[in-house]
Amino acid sequence: MTADQLQSIIRAGLNCEHLAVEGDGRHWYATIVSAEFEGKRLLARQRLVYATMGERIKTDEVHALSMKTFTPAEWSAKTE
């Protein structure tokens, strides 16, 4: 799996305003900004992202995904 493929998978299941993915093919790091995170705690946000990957996580196609999740307002405040 490539970073572009993983980005496409996440974008297909989650409306992202910003998405950056990097990694080595098995271990991934993602920064994800989505309005769908509004009002959700960290675990609920991560579950939304994991849900976009479906069986890819269970079958070890994506071995590990470390992520930072932000709402658009949180991202705007962080990047100012």
Automatic annotation (TrEMBL):
Q: Which residues form the signal peptide?
A: none
Q: Which InterPro entries match?
A: BolA, BolA-like_sf, BolA/IbaG_stress_morph_reg
Query: Pfam families in the record, alphabetically?
Result: BolA (PF01722)
Q: Which Gene3D superfamilies match?
A: BolA-like (3.30.300.90)
Q: Please give the family membership noted in the entry.
A: Belongs to the BolA/IbaG family.
State what protein this is by name: BolA family transcriptional regulator
Q: Which organism is it from?
A: Comamonas avium
